[in-house]
Specification:
The structure is a single chain. The model has no long low-confidence stretch (mean pLDDT 89). This protein has two domains: 22-137, Orthogonal Bundle (Arc Repressor Mutant, subunit A), CATH 1.10.10; 139-184. Strands 1-3-2 form a three-stranded antiparallel β-sheet. The chain starts with 23 loop residues before the first helix and ends in a 19-residue tail after the last helix. The chain is globular, with a radius of gyration of 21 Å. The protein has seven helices and three strands; from the N terminus they run ααβααββααα. Helix 1 runs antiparallel to helix 5, helix 2 packs across helix 4 (80-92) and helix 2 (52-63) crosses helix 5 (114-136). Helix content is 53%, strand content 7%. The protein is mainly alpha-helical. Residues 23-155 form the HTH marR-type domain.
């Protein structure tokens, strides 16, 4: 394979920086924090040949036992096809049970099994420990400010779902910008 000769005017040799009008500190802090936040669960799940999609499904089925497939799709913002593959594995491996709806038999409701609850708790405990250890290094009022910051990062239309999962957020007061001020 031959290398294409590129005109030196087409090649950029300096990194993006604040000179480009963007503060990269927060972007990179979020990137690296997320990388490390999911590292332990990724390692645990890899032993089962599972990935992050399995983690998310396990998490939300355990947070809302009886959740419908439609509601789970709405939370995860993934396709039915993506969910079907992951869900099939979790059901076959006895981490999740699927039952028809009580009034609409076509509806599929998802419940964790004992095995699924234990795995979800094991994963959540290592993530909670990482969060608590980080908060321990900061002033006490930081926890509320951290919650407010993360909540503000969520698209406004997704916030009611987050509030319904976390009743402690009801007391959280966050400046709610109007939708027109958010960039798409």
């Amino acid at each position: 394979m031959t290398e294409k000769k590129v005109d030196s005017d087409e090649v950029i040799t300096h990194p993006m920086s604040e000179d480009d009008g963007i503060s990269f500190e927060m972007i990179e802090l979020l990137f690296f924090a997320y990388r490390d936040f999911v590292a332990d669960p990724d390692t645990m799940l890899a032993t089962l040949s599972y990935g992050r999609a399995h983690h998310r499904v396990l998490h939300f089925v355990n947070r809302r036992p009886g959740i419908t497939v439609a509601a789970l799709l709405d939370i995860l913002k993934i396709t039915k096809q993506s969910l079907a593959r992951v869900l099939k594995q979790l059901i076959e491996d006895d981490y999740i049970a699927q039952q028809p709806g009580e009034t609409d038999r076509r509806q599929r409701r998802l419940f964790p099994t004992v095995k699924g609850r234990e795995l979800a708790l094991e994963i959540s405990k290592c993530q909670a420990r990482r969060i608590e250890e980080a908060l321990q290094t900061l002033p006490p009022e930081t926890k509320k400010a951290s919650k407010a910051f993360l909540y503000a990062m969520i698209e406004p239309q997704g916030r009611p779902t987050v509030r319904s999962l976390n009743h402690g957020l009801e007391a959280l007061t966050v400046f709610e910008p109007d939708d027109s001020s958010r960039r798409k």
